[in-house]
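For concreteness, we quote verbatim a single protein encoded this way:
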Amino acid sequence: MEPIRSFIAIELPEALKAELSRLQAQLKSGEQHWVKWVDPYSIHLTLKFLGNVAPDRLDDITKVMAAAVPEIAPFTLEVSELGVFPNLRRVQVVWVGLSGELDRLKQLQQNLESGLATLGFTPESRPFVAHLTLARLRDQATPAQRQSLGQLIASTTFKTASGIKVESISLMRSQLTREGAIYSQISSARLGKPLPTKNA
């Protein structure tokens, strides 16, 4: 069977996606063919990118997700400032940062990392930075174009009333098409839900 390109993520409320769409419209100016904007209605908070996974491994991944969530109660994240990787002079990725109960988010992400390591998934070497990706710059973007977008981002303020109430995590499928990636949920695990006990 064909492998499934997949990742584990927190899905966003529709109200926040609409606000991210308005923010993108504010940042778009003229013909920015060197900027690849992420469809705002498919933006999510990625906890772990898994890559191409054999279909018969999906159940084991779902079990790891279920084992990662029982001791973590639902929590809330707030959307904070606009930012970029690696810096405003050489913009490569445009993102919106997150604040709020980041300690619970970090614990959840670490639980997933350690559980997935037992299945052979390599843990991330870089520290986890909670963010929502808005855009990526194409390789052909010139240094001047990268810097001008950085200046625009530095002068743009973004405030939103929409938070993210994190109550579950999802195993997602990513299907790459010419129009962009199409995402669909494979399975999910609810936070704070105890693992089923085995009958003696």
